[in-house]
Amino acid sequence: MPEFCDVALPVPLDTAFSYRVPEGMQPAVGGRVLVSFRQQRMSGIVIDLHDRTPAVVTKNVVSVLDASPVLDAQLLRLGKWIADYYLAPVGEVFRTMLPLSAEFKRTIVYRIAEQGQLALHLGGMSGSSARARRTPEEQLSEFRVLDYLANRDEASEQSLRSAASVSRAVLAGMVRKKWIVREDVSDARDAARFVKVAVLRSAEDSHSALVPGEHPSAGSGQAAHSATSKLNANQQTLIETLAGAGGRVALKTLQALDVPRTTLNTLVKRGLIDIVEEPAEFHVSSSKPRPSPFDFQFNPAQQQALQRIEQGVAARKFAGMLLHGVTGSGKTAVYLAGMRAVLEAGHSAILLVPEIGLTPAVAADLHQVFGDEVAILHSALSDKERAEQWHRIKRGDARMVVGTRSAVFAPVADLALIIVDEEQDSSYKQEESPRYHARDVAVMRAKMADAMVVLGSATPSLESYYNAKKNKYALVELPDRVEQRPLPEVELIDMKQEFQETGQEQVISRKLAEEIRERLEPKEQVMILLNRRGYSPVALCRACGSRMECRNCAVAMTHHKGSRRMVCHYCGFQAPIPKTCGECGSEYVYFLGTGSEKLEELLHGMFPSARIGRLDRDTVRGNEDFERVLNALNEGQLDLLVGTQMIAKGHDVHGVTLVGVVGADTALGLPDFRAAERTFQLLTQVAGRAGRGQTPGKVVLQTYFPDHYAVQYAAHHDFVGFYEKELQFRSWMHYPPYSALANVLVRSDKLEEALQWSGILGKWFDGTRHEGVRVLGPAAAPIVRLKRDYRYHFVLKSASREKLNALLRTMVAYAVSQKIPRTQVIVDVDALWLM
Ligand SMILES: [Zn+2]
Ligand SMILES: [Zn+2]
Predict the structure, then answer these.
(1) Closest ligand to 566 CA?
(2) What's the pLDDT tens digit per position in 634-686?
(3) Helical packing angle, 801-817 and 751-767, nearest 10°
(4) pLDDT in tens, 567-604
C-alpha cells in the first residue's frame, strides 16, 4: 500500500491535502476517509495514493470509511472537470456529488486536563487567581464540569452539557484556560444502514401479545382472526396491505397510505404488528408494481423522436439531441418510452426534471412504468432517505433514476441515456458553490460515458438551440400538439391604452374581465398569471417619498396582508406593517402595486360566486400542497387559479380554456441580458396551459410593452423568430452563446471591505494582460446589498473559454495572495443572473 494519500476535503480551498496511510489501512481512490483538519474531523474523498513524501508534515488518516470507491473513475473525472470548469473547490464538488452526510456522525468529547485536576483539588476554583472575574454561578458551573469529568475518562459534549448544565461558551473558556481538553472524534455511523419495517405478527404468536382479557377465550389459531375482525376500516387497510405483501412492509410505505399515523400505533399496541429495524440491504420492497404494458399511441413526430433516441442509445457512443416540442406535444411520453428501451436493453438512464416537476402524481406514473427499477430523488427527501436511494442506485437495484439537479450525479453503472426535461429551467443551475449547471454537466457526463443526452423543451435556451443549429446536437422537432389540438389564440392588450381609455391604472383589463366572465358561465376554467407574490410590492411614504426597505438588502419589502407582515423576498426578513414612515414619521404610508394575494382578493370582488385558488410560494410549502391545488383544479373544484410562475410549469389541466397574463413583462425592465429570453419562455409556457382538453384555448396577454419582440413572438408562438432576433442582440453585445461569460462578485458585510477588495481586483485586472477577455467593472451589483452583504461585481466575457478560465484562475490566486477570503470572491461561470 502506498504511504500517502491525497484527500479532497469539503472546504473552500482549491487544493487537496496529503495524509499518511497508517500500516494496515487500505483506502481506495474514490473512497472516503476520515481525517483531522484544523482540529476537526472531516470525511473526504481519496483522489490519489502515492509514495511522494509531501513537503509539509502529514497527519495520519484516522479511519477508512469505504473499502471500495463510492465515486467510480468516471464520476471522479466528472468531479474534477466541474472543479476546473466552474473554478470550484474539488472537495466541495465531491460533497455535492455524494449525498451521504447522514452516514457521518459529529461527536465532540471533553477530558479533564492536569491543570483542571489542580484547579479542582487545590482550590483554583475559589477565584483567588487575579484573572478570575467570574460570577459565583460561573464558578459553580465550572466546578460541575470538572467534577463530572474527574470521574470518567471522557464525556461527549452532549452528555457533559446536560449533566453540568453549562453553555458552550463556558466550555470554550475552560478549554482556553487549559483546564479541559476538547477533541473531535466524529466518525462514520454504523456501516449497516437500517430501515424500519412493519411486520405482521403470525397467528401463532399473536395471542400472547393481545391485551389480557380482550380475547379471553381465543385460542392461538383464532387470535389474529378475532382481533382483525374488530378492526376499523383504517386498521383493516393496514393489515390487508401487510398481508398482501407477505407480512413485511417498509414503514415508509405504510405511512404513505391514506391512513392516520395513530392507526399504526394502535395496531402495534394491540400486538398485531411489530416494528423492527432491518439492514437496508436485506429489505425487500413490499408491493412490486409490475411495469405496465405502456401502450402510448404515438403520432409520427413522436415516433420519429423515439426512434432517434433508440438508435442513439444502441450506438453506445456520445450523441446529443435537442427535442424541441411545442407545449402539449407529448415529450414526456417520448422520454419514458426511451428510458424503457434502455431498461429492456439492460442499461441505465437518468431523467432530470426541474425543481417543481416532481409531484407525487409524477412519481406514481414512474412507478407504474418502471416498477421497482426507479429511484426518485427530490428535494423533500431527508438526508437519510437520500442516502438510502443513493445506495439503491449504487447497488444496481434501481437503474432508472429520476430527480432534480443533483440526480445528474446518480451512481448508475452502464449509463446509456440522460434526459434533461425543460432544459432551459433555471433550477438546474446551483446558486451556491459549486455553481454547476446540471444540463451542461449532463452533456459532459454523457460524453464521458459514451451515452446519449436528450435536452427537451418547448422553449429551448438560446445556448442549446444554437448548439443544435451548429450541429453539435441533432435537432428533433415535435411541431404539433397531441391529438391535433390547436395552439391557443393569443390576444394582446396594451395596458397604456387601457389606462388612457379608463382614466385609471387597471389590474384586470375590461377585455380580460369579459373573457373570464364568459368562461365562468359554462364552468370552464381560467388561470391567471401574476409573477409577483404578496399583497403589495412597495410601501411608500407620500410625505418624503422613501420606500420601506429590508434591513439586510437594498430591496423593497413586500406587504403580506394575510400574515400581516412586511416580508423581504430575498432574505426572508420580516417586520411589522409600518403605521408611520421610518424616515420622517409621517402617517401617510401607502401601499402600491399588486401581488398575487391582492389579485385573488380583487377577483373575489369581481366574481363573487367563483371558486378561486392561489398557487404561489405563500400557499405552497411543498410538492404535496402543489399537487393538492392542482388536483382541486383538475377535479373541477376551482373555477379560477391565480398564481406566480409556478402555474406556468408543465402540468396538464384539461379544463383550462383561458389563460390571463397580468404583468409578466415587468422582467423586461431588469438590467439583465437574459430578461427577454426569460419573458419569452414564461409567456410561452403559461400560454401552453390553455386548451389542453377538447375545447380550444385562448390567452389574454396584458402588457405595457406590446411592441417588444419577446411579447410579439410569444403571442405568435414563434420560437424561431424570437431566437433569430435575440441572437442578433447577443451577437452585437458579445453575450452567450457568442461568448463565455462569468460574473465575479465581491462581497462583505462591511462596505469598506467590499469597496477595497473590488478595488484591489479592479487594479489587478487593469494591470494584467488579458487579451481576448473583456472585463467590465468593478461596478455596484444591481442589488447592491443582499443578505447584509455589500456587493460589487465584474462581468467577464470571452470568445475563448480557455482564456476566460485561465484569467479567472490567476485572479482567484491573486485574491487569495491579497488576503481576500476565498468565500468572499464568488466566481460564477456561465452565470444565469447578473443581479
Ligand atoms: Zn416619510
Ligand atoms: Zn432582505
Answers:
(1) 2
(2) 889 999 999 998 888 756 777 899 999 997 777 787 778 999 999 999 999 89
(3) 130
(4) 999 999 999 999 999 899 999 999 999 999 999 999 99
Nearest Cα residue to 243 out of 256, 269, 268, 224: 224
> CA separation (Å) from 163 to 156, 166, 644?
10, 8, 51
How many CA atoms are closer than 13 Å to the CA of 58, on its beta-carbon side? 21
Q: What is the per-residue DSSP string for 754-791?
A: HHHHHHHHHHHHHHS--TTEEEEEEEEEEEEEETTEEE
Confidence class for position 239, pLDDT limits 50, 70, 90: confident
DSSP 651-684: ---TTEEEEEEES--GGGGSS-TTHHHHHHHHHH
For residue 590, the ligand closest to its alpha carbon is: 1
Q: How far is the CA of 669 from the centre of ligand 2 (A)?
A: 21
| Interval between CA 588 and ligand 1 midpoint (Å) | 8
Amino acid found at 498:
E
- Calculate how far, in angstroms, residue 593's C-alpha sits from the geometric centre of ligand 2: 19
Kindly tell me if the per-residue pLDDT of 776 is higher than 70: yes
The DSSP result for 277-323, as a single string, is EEEGGGPPPS--PPPP-------HHHHHHHHHHHHHHHHTS-EEEEE
Looking only at the bridges linking them, the beta strands covering 773-786 and 538-541 are unpaired
pLDDT of residue 71: 95
DSSP-based three-state secondary structure for 104: strand
Residue 660, amino acid: G
- Ramachandran area for residue 414 (φ above 0: left; ψ -120 to 50: alpha; else beta): left
Tell me what percent of the residues of the chain surpass a pLDDT of 90.
61
What residues are neighbours of ligand 1 (ion), with CB under 5 Å? 541, 543-544, 581, 583-584, 586
| Spatial distance between the Cα atoms of 616 and 621, rounded to a whole number of angstroms | 9
In this structure, which ligand is nearest to the CA of 539?
A: 1
* Consecutive H or E run containing 272: none
Q: Which among 611, 609, 610, 613 is positioned nearest to 597, based on CA atoms?
A: 613
Percent of the chain with pLDDT over 70: 91
391-432: pLDDT as tens digits: 999 989 999 999 999 999 999 999 999 999 999 999 999 999
- pLDDT score recorded for residue 157: 85
The identity of residue 470, as a single letter, is K
> What is the reported pLDDT for 228?
55
Secondary structure tally for the chain: helices H, strands E: 26, 35
User: What is the per-residue pLDDT for 287?
Assistant: 38
- pLDDT at position 58 is 86
Helix axes 261-269, 233-244, angle to 10 degrees: 80
DSSP H helices in 668-741: 675-687, 709-715, 719-733
* Ligand 2 centroid – CA 556 distance (Å): 8
Q: How many Å is the Cα radius of gyration of the chain?
A: 31
At 220, the pLDDT band (50, 70, 90 cuts) reads very low
Which ligand is the nearest neighbour of the Cα of 584?
1
791 CA → ligand 2 middle, Å: 14
Tell me what the mean pLDDT of segment 165-178 comes to.
90
Bridge pairing between strands 825-829 and 740-748: antiparallel
Question: Per-residue pLDDT tens for 781-791?
Answer: 999 999 999 99
- Could you tell me the distance, in angstroms and rounded to a whole number, from the CA of residue 530 to the centre of ligand 1? 29
Q: Count of CB atoms within 10 A of residue 620's CB?
A: 20
Question: How far, in Å, is the centroid of ligand 2 from the Cα of 602?
Answer: 27
pLDDT of 216 strictly over 90: no
Q: How far is the CA of 573 from the centre of ligand 1 (A)?
A: 21
64: β partners: 33
Cell of 481: 400538439
